[in-house]
Every structure is written in structure tokens, then in C-alpha cells.
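Case study: Rho-GAP domain-containing protein.
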Amino acid sequence: METLIQDTTQCGVPFLVTQMVEYLEVFGLEHVGIFRISGSVNKIKELKQKYNQGEQVDLVNDGDVDSVASLLKLFLKELPVAVFPDNICSGRNSNLKQLLSCLPKAHQNLFQFLSAFLLKVATYSAVNFMTLENLAIVFGPALFK
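Here is what the predicted structure looks like once written out:
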């Protein structure tokens, strides 16, 4: 995560995450099944390859909601160290605020950014069917590997 910080936005979150979230805020909040319906495998591979090679990615023209949502989940799952690493989470009986304070700053920034976005997604749950509970089921395994 720390190596990705070299390419971050002002909020300390990797650029690719902010780009995907901004896209999803515009095009995905009212999309039924956002984060539950898998995107096109080929589209996800293509977008991932562009990001990995440092190419400019135009999500508006090259992406779709399901593929971008799937790529965001994939990014979190493939982080070498989870947002909440095992050494921070294991053996602790503490509340979330205490856990957050133990995280490296890059992890704190990402978690806070994603939390704000996922709360926004949940406010559209009457349309997209993604309640906080559903979002926790989808994102929990990626955040707490």
C-alpha cells in the first residue's frame, strides 16, 4: 500500500481508487446489483493491465459499472497486505476506533475514503439493493484477509 502512495490524490488514496470511485459515484449509485454482479472478465483484465502499465484509463469510454466495481473489489483483494492486516487484527478485543489508530496512515486513508463511498452507495439501497449489511458481506473479506 505504501508504494501506491507515490501516486495518490490529495486525500492520500491511490489515484486508481479515487478514479474508480468517482466513476461509480456518477454512473453506479443507482445501478441494481452494484458490487454483486460481476463485470466482463475481458474488460476487467483490460482495465487492470492499463493501470498496471501506468497508462491513462478512460473509465467513461472504456468501462462499465459492473466491470469497474469488480475491478475495485479485485484491487482490494490483491493488495499484498490487507487494509486491516492480520498483525493488527489478531488477538485484539478492541473497537474499530482503536484498530484504526493502529493502522498505517495509508491504510487509514483508504479505509476512510472507502467507508464514505460505501455509505453513499447504501443511501441508494432502495434502488441498488446494496444495504450496509450487503456491502459488509461483499467488502469484509477484501478488507480483512
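For the exam, be able to explain this: DSSP finds nine helices and no strands in the chain.
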